[in-house]
């Protein structure tokens, strides 16, 4: 009797796994076609930090070459900016200005449409940041950014000046002070906010987790919750609330944190992702020396 019971349980477990796998494959097929992945160019040293403007043009960085590039909605690739502060993560604010994690001197920049640079943040309490990595802007114009430490060969310093690797918030306005909003992380990297602005998602690449935080009225974060048992370099969201995690290709998770798809990118590392294009339904992927795009059946939220 016991043998029959365990056999029945085993069969049900197998059927559940099979059904779940088939469902995941079906969802993936509804989101994208792997064969549609298209190489845009492979002329860079290491691509990072894609951001989309209101038109759907994508800007991205080639950090070792100290450049920011533009890929417009007509498929034209052009150099936007040299001497770009060793730009890493980027994000467009509501005024169409490009916010930049300028890793050369560990600063936050605001770059106007005519490429004029304004330094928004250079030090915290007289100490250099570790190296602003990725950022997200809330509806008020406040900037959340991650600050992990990755030793760069173009730095003179050999160790961090800050204690810990944290998430910061720079409120909007002129006479404001940056503040730590999350320090319960090991090495925060990719960051993105929900479409309604209620939640912030932070990828902890060292712990191999993605955390959700509730966003308070003054920008503070609370209620840290692990939602995905996988870390990421870059991260974005689509209009259905699905997560796109860059690292080994692009792994897709539903809002409940269940894996529902994987975009294979045959490069050593996939650093970041961003939706763009005329309808904001093309997924743009920075991956090692290359950049790719793939049409999706959903739109991004940025």
Task: Explain the overall architecture.
By secondary structure, the protein is mainly beta. Helix content is 10%, strand content 43%. The chain has one helix spanning 2-31, and strands spanning 38-41, 47-52, 58-62, 67-71, 77-81, 87-92, 98-102, 107-111, 117-121, 123-124, 127-128, 135-137, 143-147, 166-170, 179-182, 188-193, 199-204, 209-215, 221-228, 235-237, 243-247, 249-253, 259-263, 272-276, 282-287, 290-295. The strands form 7 sheets. Strands 1-26-25-24 form a 4-stranded antiparallel beta sheet, with no helix packed on it. A hairpin with a 5-residue loop joins strand 16 (188-193) and strand 17 (199-204). The radius of gyration is 20 Å and the shape is globular. Residues 13-25 have low confidence and may be disordered.
Q: Concise description?
A:
The protein has 302 residues and is mainly beta. It has one helix at residues 2-31, and strands at 38-41, 47-52, 58-62, 67-71, 77-81, 87-92, 98-102, 107-111, 117-121, 123-124, 127-128, 135-137, 143-147, 166-170, 179-182, 188-193, 199-204, 209-215, 221-228, 235-237, 243-247, 249-253, 259-263, 272-276, 282-287, 290-295.
Silhouette: globular
Report on the biggest sheet: 4 strands, antiparallel
Percentage of β-strand residues: 35-45%
Rg computed from alpha carbons, rounded to a whole number of angstroms? 20 Å
- Name the helix and strand elements from N-terminus to C-terminus, one letter apiece: HEEEEEEEEEEEEEEEEEEEEEEEEEE
Please provide the count of β strands: 26
Q: Quote the average pLDDT.
A: 92
How many alpha or pi helices? 1
Kindly report how far apart the N and C termini lie: 57 Å
The class by helix and strand makeup works out as mainly beta
Uncertain regions spanning at least 5 consecutive residues: 13-25
* Biggest sheet: strand arrangement: 1-26-25-24
Residues in helix, %: under 10%
